[in-house]
Design goal:
single chain
Length: 214
């Protein structure tokens, strides 16, 4: 009997989740056209996560390895249970008020029930209204809570999320060097062309008196 109740409870959750998913999709919340690009070089990154050391460490390690100058504001919240949704919603609002450029929502793996807060309608709508791009890295790769669908970018793991929000410093330096060299070549070509035009104009002016006398 207990097993039948458990199966019934899970089935009810899945049915309710599917109804909510269809409702939000009909409103356009999952539309790819509304997805925003992540900033190339964020000045301030917001990270909402639980006190789970693994998820937080994975995000921070990936960020600091790729881009050591990165600045990250961390908000630790409840990530399961009845207090999770209001706690995460408050954290998102607080970080946005602090002027972040991008938000990472990260949580390690868990059971279906553990991840239910990340399919809560209140949280999904807050993520949809978030003024900055959101990267969702919740659960394992096979887990797809509704925040994954509404977020601007879905990361398969917290480590991947960390790599997505910052550029690779080595690649960035290479790009800057190539850009600088290209600008230098362009400036040199412009200067050479101007010098040739000035030389031509000077020759014309020098010949002008003789031509006038003729």
């Amino acid at each position: 009997v207990a097993l039948d109740r458990e199966r019934y409870g899970l089935g009810a959750h899945l049915a309710a989740l599917e109804r909510l998913k269809r409702k939000l999709a009909a409103e356009g919340l999952f539309d790819p056209a509304r997805k925003r690009a992540l900033p190339r070089i964020p000045r301030l990154i917001g990270l909402v996560t639980g006190n789970d050391a693994a998820a937080k460490r994975d995000v921070l390690t990936a960020i600091t390895t790729r881009f050591p100058p990165a600045h990250v504001l961390i908000a630790e919240t409840y990530v399961q249970g009845p207090r999770a949704v209001p706690s995460i919603v408050t954290a998102i609002g607080d970080l946005c008020e602090r002027g972040i450029d991008v938000l990472v929502l990260a949580r390690g793996g868990g059971s279906f029930e553990d991840l239910l807060p990340f399919s809560d309608e209140r949280l999904v709508r807050v993520v949809a209204r978030c003024p900055v791009p959101v990267v969702s890295a919740v659960g394992h790769e096979q887990d797809i809570p509704l925040v994954d669908l509404v977020a601007d970018v879905r990361a398969s793991t917290p480590s991947v999320a960390g790599r997505l929000v910052v550029p690779d410093l080595v690649e960035l330096r290479d790009w800057l060097e190539r850009t600088h060299a290209g600008l230098e070549r362009g400036a040199r070509r412009v200067c050479d062309a101007q010098a040739k035009r000035l030389a031509t104009s000077r020759d014309v002016l020098e010949r002008a008196p003789a031509l006038a006398l003729e």
